Each structure stands twice: as structure tokens, then as C-alpha cells.
Amino acid sequence: MNVPDETFRKEETVDLLLPMLLSLQQIDDKLSAFGQKKKEIPERIQALEHAFEEEKKRLEAHKQRMKEASLKQRQLEKKLQESAEDRKKKQQKLLGVKTNEEYKALLKEIEYAKQADSGMEDEILVLLEEIESLEKALREEERTTRESEGKLQEETRRLEREIVEVDKEHRLLQGERKRVAAELDPAVLDDYEKIRSRRAGQAVVTVHKEVCPGCHMQVPPQTINEVLQTGEIRHCPFCRRILYCELEESA
Fold this sequence. Notes:
- By secondary structure, the protein is mostly helical.
- It has five helices and two strands, in the order αααβαβα.
- The protein has a two-stranded parallel ribbon.
């Protein structure tokens, strides 16, 4: 239930009432902004840490690819060596064969082994080139990751200092709000709080060019004149926000 405008007037404070309400609104706006900052800073730190963890995962995946390529290279080299030893034995065996068919079959086995060895040699060369490229890229990624870690630590420290400052300012503003609120008539304060809760935290608005900035509707000139002449509380007839008027705005 809205308290009638007339109940808000107190002769000894009427000239200060609207400025005090405007001041309270400005304090609440700052408190809201600080509250948002207090929420966003930990989220920013968390986002930075997440990005760094993703970077480390990419680095580890890169290391794993190089490890797998190196292992495959060693396996192929071992297999190639075993194949070479096997071919050598078959070459020696050729000297002892007694039939032409056996000789031809052994020659064919040796030829197949040579072809297989040639394929493995080509594969090893490809792997060596890949490993060289991976090693080069890995060194660059390790350097980048070290730099990212340093930047993360620096930015985290900066944001943590910012949290401390925001907390300090927030506490000071809360004290200031308490002081200003204590000077207001309880009925005025209650009406202010109700409007704030219904209007997304905006209870007091400064009229500009006869327009309420809260709902963007035209405020009757008579209402503006009443605020300027009497200093009494007047509400926007459309959104019920408390109107604060300045002489130059109404001119």
C-alpha cells in the first residue's frame, strides 16, 4: 500500500528530503555495482584458471603425441633391425639350398622382406620429421605456458587486491547508507524500499526534459512544478517512482 504523499512532509526537513532520497538511491546504486563486482571477480579468476588448465591440457596432449611418435619410431627401428638380421640369415641359407624351387622361394621371401623394410624406413623418416616438428612446437608451447602461468599469477593477485578494495568500499557505503537511512522518516524509507523492490532497485529518478527516465513517460508539468516549489515527494503517475527535479531540467 502506497503511503499518501502528504504524510511525507515534515516542515523541518522538507528541503532536504528529496536530496537525501536521491543520495540514498545513489548509495544503493553503488552498493549494487560493488555487489556485482564482488560476484564477478571470483568468476573472472575462475575463468582465467580454467583457460590456463585448458592450455596445460593442450601441452600435455602435445607431449603425449610426441611420446607416441617416438615410441613408434623405436618400435619400427627395432623391427627393421630384426628384419635385417632375418634377411641376413636367409641370404646365408641360400648357399645351402639343394633345389631350384627352394632357392626361388627363399629369394622371394628376401625380396618381400626388402620391400617391407623399405616401407618401414620411409615411415621412420616421416616419424623423424614429425618428431622434429613436434619438438619445435613443444618448446614454443612450453614457453607460452610459462608466460601464461606468470600472467595468471599476476592477474590473480591484482584481482584479489581488487576484492579487498571492493570489500572496503562496500563496508564504507553500507555505513553511509545506514546513516542516511536513519535520518529519513520511517514511512518515507518504507515507501522507498517498496518501490526499489518493485522497480529493479530504482526508486528515485531525476526527471530530464519532463520525462521519467524509469518508464520513459511524460511527467505532467504541474507535478514537476510541485516538486520544485514545495520540495515534497511526488511519484511518477505511471511507474510510481519518486521524482527528483532540477530547475534547469524543467526550464
